[in-house]
Amino acid sequence: MRILTSKLPALETTIFAVMSALANKHNAINLSQGYPNFPSDPKLMELVNKAMKGGFNQYAHMNGEPALRQAIANKFELLYDITYHPENEIIVTAGATQAIYTAITAVIHPGDEVIVFRPAYDSYVPSIELNGGKPVSIQLSSPDYKIDWDVVRKKITSRTRMIMINSPHNPSGTVLSEGDLLNLQQITSGTDILVLSDEVYEHIIFEESHQSVCRFPELKTRSFITASFGKTFHNTGWKIGYCCGPKDLMDEFLKVHQFNVFSVNHPMQVALAEYLKNADHFLQLSEFYQKKRDLFLDLVGSSRFKFNPSKGTYFQAADYSAISTENDMEFSRWLTVEKGVACIPVSAFNLNKKDDHMVRFCFAKTDETLKQAAEILCKL
Ligand code: PMP
Ligand code: GLN
Questions:
Q1: What spacing in Å lies between the alpha carbon of 325 and ligand 1's midpoint?
Q2: Which of 113, 163, 245, 363 sits in a 20 to 30 Å window from 57, CA-based?
């Protein structure tokens, strides 16, 4: 009989896999897992073909294709007038999930505390725990999910090693303000606390401008930024992202990266480097998704869901308490199985699965799909 001690004994299958499987099984419209149901730009696919045929099929540089790192650096210059050096401050990763895991593994020692705001993307806490770190959760309240920085101050101890933030925020669709980032900067000033800023939805933000940690000089010196091209260019299955940060942090990141992936798929990196030369490809994304958000909100306007319009990401959180008293997992199952629209229960990201009767819909879908889903949602 094998004796196996699980490193994550309480961990369940990720809610994204669970809800997508349920949606497929019952042929429901899948507004659960976050991915577009429309294709990526054919020009980008052409560039991948060209790179493959051009012979970029062997291991890429460990840090990432140099041209792609340069393109990422150029993007930071263009958007924020900020310099990240392509040779030692940017590393291309197999999606943001790997970037997050590698950054945490690089700097979190057993017993280190990591402050995580809940609801939190579901890879954060297991990544901390696998490294022996201690997640210190701060539960935010629906529907605004505002951070009370006095509470954060009180949670900081001599063992606090990192604070994780995510703006625009999955699953709530809220964004952090300049004031939030200034508070974070002030709270961490003069300490050894690092920041992991998950900015995968940087290019999907409505009405406000993105407050990247890199825009705050002192925060930049203590922060990793993680990003995902899957979100930006409608190809979540390609799994390419990056991490950037100051050289000393990225030196440690690279030590882990070289042995958990070594390098990331080469032809797609070459293609992305070329594609990023046209800044419109990412500058137009917010407008594109704002139209989708507005369409979705307009279509579900007469439903009994309550919405605070999403300020960023391609997710819309919704309060269903006028429709049902069931908990959000039961409600999501019912909506998927009985009514044919799949969503994500927000409790999956909360501390102790706190249920606020909130679900998350993904509006990265064709207008036709959104119309079909809304028709059902309006009848509930
Ligand atoms: N962080 C957040 C907040 C996300 O929503 C996601 C899902 N895209 C990721 C990280 C992981 O990104 P990737 O698919 O590139 O691994
Ligand atoms: N980021 C996506 C979401 O929030 C899903 C990613 C995944 O399935 N791992 O829905």
A1: 31
A2: 245
| pLDDT band at 347; cut points 50, 70, 90 | very high
**Ligand lying nearest the CA atom of residue 343:** 2
pLDDT reported for residue 24: 97
- Choosing among 1.10.260.40, 1.20.120.610, 3.90.1150.10, 3.40.50.1110, the CATH entry for 15-40+283-377 is 3.90.1150.10
Q: Return the pLDDT at 1.
A: 81
Q: What is the mean pLDDT of the chain?
A: 97
Site to substitute for ligand 1 among 15, 19, 100, 121, most atoms within 8 A of C-beta: 121
* Residue 170 Cβ < 6 Å to ligand 2: yes
Q: Is 199 in the pocket of ligand 1 (CB under 6 A)?
A: no
State if residue 95 touches ligand 1 by the CB under 6 angstroms criterion: yes
Res. 275: pLDDT tops 90: yes
Q: Is the CB of 202 inside a 6 Å radius of any atom of ligand 1? A: no
DSSP letter at 338?
I
Alpha-carbon gap, residue 98 to 265, rounded angstroms: 14
Report, as an integer, the average pLDDT of 131-155: 97
Positions of E strands within 271-374: 306-307, 315-319, 341-342, 344-345, 358-362
* Short-list 267, 360, 266, 294, CA closest to 15: 360
pTM for the predicted model, two decimal places: 0.97
Ligand 2 atom showing the smallest separation from residue 123 Cα:
9
